């Protein structure tokens, strides 16, 4: 029940500020559990200060050099941050446990210290000896890199006061707690207090700060939503456990773009940036195999040549055929299967479908639709594409192939890797010219693209022997 008009609210939600006259387990506004706490007495309205220490200045008189980014020494990380770390900026680095956050940040700390900066690395999860062993393994040793293993907020602030660093790393914000706040480390009140205190010190002393944040099982950052609003940059660390590839993308960035992605290779000797990761997403075979197709995805402004694989097999059991995906959206795959069956006469409704990407990359943009559809058709008829072919385009429910952004940039990257043919949406090049030596075929609908399957040998699309459905698609 919300507070009545004229009465002082006794309880308040720490997530959204919703108030109630009695305690409830679940917020009536944001539906979060366990976030309603006692609000206390209502304080009087804040009066204006008698003096102002830093008076407002005309915008032309503000020193812009204070917001210039300093490179960290890790090129892929600098790409995501927009050139480097700004003095006083607070960056929240979030990711699943064991994905490599601590390894990356220790590498950044070591490079910054060797560059002449005073760096303080505070670990609330490991001892200083454990961090030192990792530092030796990834060659992050430096004389001006200071380690501290602390979980008390007041002690952390004292360490900052004593070391006077220009670069601070807190690993992680969920493990630090304040003795003045009730509750265990990691709860909403503790995270708010810890983050607010560290951000205040960072802004006052112009300390570039990196905060490590945990994520929940649904992938969101643990703690109050306000944490993401308080920091200047939110960086998401992504990757599959079975793959060495790690990708870093900025979700929020006050000092640079949010459309850049950094690629890293995580190994036993540390984490290394990958300026050219396209080769990781391709299968090294002499001849193309049925059920495979190459596309070019844009991760931020970076084009990545990626291979998708599909396997369509006759369903041996009744009921709905199985649909299994890895690295692609399952609902998108189901839609493409329906479009193939309805508009291209490719018999998919009785076939089990398995779709995956190579190298652990995840395809989220619609530009990969055409490659997915052609890989499915190729698997069904057991006919590979002509070697060196890429496909780009978004597939609509009416069977049309829609234009996507950045087609010239994608084709240029494919040509650089060595591809000679491309299937793209009609009119997507505009006035731009295709790369020299590349044969570009424009299609208006998916049926036309399917008929281009294996241009060198196949003129008709025929299901292989034993395949379900009709015998011909045009």
Automatic annotation (TrEMBL):
Function: Plays a role in repairing double-strand DNA breaks, probably involving stabilizing or processing branched DNA or blocked replication forks.
Name under which the protein is recorded: DNA repair protein RadA
Family designation: Belongs to the RecA family. RadA subfamily.
InterPro entries per UniProt: AAA+_ATPase (IPR003593), DNA_repair_RadA (IPR004504), P-loop_NTPase (IPR027417), RecA_ATP-bd (IPR020588), Ribosomal_Su5_D2-typ_SF (IPR020568), Ribsml_uS5_D2-typ_fold_subgr (IPR014721), Rubredoxin_2 (IPR041166)
PROSITE patterns listed in its UniProt record: RECA_2
Region listing for Lon-protease-like, in residue ranges: 352-474
Keywords in alphabetical order: ATP-binding, DNA damage, DNA repair, DNA-binding, Hydrolase, Metal-binding, Nucleotide-binding, Stress response, Zinc, Zinc-finger
Superkingdom field: Bacteria
Domain notes per entry: The middle region has homology to RecA with ATPase motifs including the RadA KNRFG motif, while the C-terminus is homologous to Lon protease.
Domain RecA family profile: 66-215
Signal peptide: none
């Amino acid at each position: 029940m919300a507070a009545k008009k004229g009465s002082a609210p006794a309880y308040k939600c720490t997530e959204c500020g919703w108030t109630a006259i009695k305690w409830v387990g679940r917020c009536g506004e944001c539906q979060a559990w366990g976030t309603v706490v006692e609000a206390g007495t209502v304080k009087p309205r804040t009066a204006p200060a008698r003096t102002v220490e830093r008076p407002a200045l005309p915008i032309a008189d503000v020193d812009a050099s204070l917001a210039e980014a300093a490179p960290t020494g890790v090129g892929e990380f600098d790409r995501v941050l927009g050139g480097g770390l700004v003095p006083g900026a607070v960056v929240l680095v979030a990711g699943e446990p064991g994905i490599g956050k601590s390894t990356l940040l220790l590498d950044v700390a070591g490079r910054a210290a060797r560059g002449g900066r005073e760096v303080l690395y505070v670990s609330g999860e490991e001892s200083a000896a454990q961090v030192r062993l990792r530092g030796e393994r990834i060659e992050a040793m430096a004389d001006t890199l200071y380690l501290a293993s602390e979980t008390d907020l007041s002690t952390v602030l004292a360490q900052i006061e004593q070391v006077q660093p220009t670069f601070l790393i807190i690993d992680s914000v969920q493990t630090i707690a304040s003795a003045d706040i009730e509750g265990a480390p990691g709860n909403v009140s503790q995270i708010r207090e810890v983050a607010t205190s560290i951000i205040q010190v960072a802004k006052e002393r112009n300390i570039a700060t990196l905060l490590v944040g945990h994520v929940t099982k649904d992938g969101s950052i643990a703690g109050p939503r306000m944490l993401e609003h308080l920091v200047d940059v939110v960086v998401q660390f992504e990757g599959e456990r079975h793959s060495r590839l790690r990708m870093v993308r900025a979700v929020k960035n006050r000092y640079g773009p949010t459309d850049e992605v950094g690629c890293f290779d995580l190994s036993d000797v540390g984490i290394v940036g990958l300026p050219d990761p396209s080769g990781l997403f391709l299968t090294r075979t002499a001849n193309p195999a049925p059920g495979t197709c190459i596309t070019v995805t844009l991760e931020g402004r970076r084009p990545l040549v990626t291979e998708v694989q599909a396997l369509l097999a006759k369903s041996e059991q009744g009921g709905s055929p199985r649909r299994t995906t890895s690295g692609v959206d399952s609902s998108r795959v189901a839609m493409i299967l329906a479009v193939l069956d309805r508009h291209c006469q490719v018999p998919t409704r009785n076939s089990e479908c398995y779709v995956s990407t190579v190298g652990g990359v995840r395809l989220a943009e619609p530009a990969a639709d055409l490659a997915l559809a052609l890989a499915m058709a190729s698997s069904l008829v057991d006919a590979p594409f002509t070697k060196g072919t890429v496909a780009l385009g978004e597939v609509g429910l009416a069977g049309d192939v829609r234009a996507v952004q950045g087609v010239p940039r994608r084709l240029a990257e494919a040509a650089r890797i060595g591809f000679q043919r491309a299937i793209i949406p009609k009119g997507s090049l505009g006035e731009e010219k295709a790369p020299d030596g590349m044969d570009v075929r424009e299609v208006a609908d998916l049926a036309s693209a399917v008929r281009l399957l294996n241009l060198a040998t196949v003129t008709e699309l025929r299901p292989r022997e034993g395949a379900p459905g009709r015998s011909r698609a045009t």
